[in-house]
Amino acid sequence: FASGQGLPYTEDIAASLRSLLPEYIEQRSTELVLLREAERRGLTPDEESVQATLERLRSSVAPEEYDDALAGAGFPSEAELVTLIRESDLIGQVITAIEGESQPTEEQLRVRYLADIAMYTEPETFCARHILVADEALAQEIIDKVNAGEDFAELAGVHGTDGTARTGGDLGCFQRGMMIEPFEDAVVAATVGSVTGPVETQFGYHAVLVYDHRPAAAVPFEDVRDYVAESVAADNAYAVIDGLIRVSGVVTYPERLAPPTAE
């Protein structure tokens, strides 16, 4: 792990990573279960892929530095590195096989889509401009001018007192809960395309123009079908792997780890 993070493996680094040991034990037990499953299925390492990985690792450092790099990564010999590569290949084959066997039915996909419909629902959105001024009478005057046909954006450039003045008062699009309550209440109640206000907030008085309102809407199933399929297949595969671990009888004892050496 230290080597993968580009860290030298020192006593200090070892001490700082000690808290990860229980997780590593759980990970290793899972790997051993998957390797047993690979054996049960009669899988063998793809030696061509193994050698390609080994050659790639060899070429990543100068030849004279290779042995030191191996040692620095925690491998006493290249043989142990090859063993790890072969194990990784077998584990990958097992997971691929399980994923292939875990493809969901159409009914499962639609049930999951409905169960997770909130994930696939685009929230209600409002798009608005405003003109913020300090005086209520001025805010009302601006509203009257807009109703009389003057351009809201131009009036924002003349009278606006916040940063949106230079963009015609455009606040962009936002969802409920993103604006302060009095302003949001006015936006929600407003008619699209009509100026409303004056709206008083802690910042002053606002003339408000909502120029778009998009109600909440669910993304159609077919648009997210592939994503739902990946999610269900992953859950199915995880359930299979979890079942393999449970029936394997493997037990870990992280509490038996030697305590850290006292300073």
Question: How does this model look, in words?
Answer:
With 263 residues, the protein is an alpha+beta fold. It has helices at 11-17, 21-40, 47-59, 66-72, 78-101, 106-115, 136-147, 152-159, 181-189, 221-248, and strands spanning 121-122, 125-133, 170-175, 195-201, 204-214, 217-218. The strands form two sheets. It has a four-stranded antiparallel beta sheet, sandwiched between helices. Strand 4 (195-201) and strand 5 (204-214) form a beta hairpin. Helix 2 crosses helix 5 (78-101), helix 2 packs across helix 10 (221-248) and helix 5 (78-101) crosses helix 10. The longest helix is centred in the last third of the chain and has 28 residues, at 221-248. The two termini are 24 Å apart.
Largest sheet: 4 strands, antiparallel
Strands ordered across the widest β-sheet = 3-2-5-4
Question: In terms of structural class, how would the helical and strand content be classed?
Answer: alpha+beta
- How many helices? The count is 10
Shape: elongated
Strand content: 5-15%
Oligomer: single chain
- Got a strand count? 6
SSE succession: HHHHHHEEHHEHEEEH
For the residues shown, what is the average pLDDT?
Answer: 90
End-to-end C-alpha gap: 24 Å
Helix content: 40-55%
Q: Tell me the Rg in angstroms.
A: 31 Å
**Low-confidence runs:** none
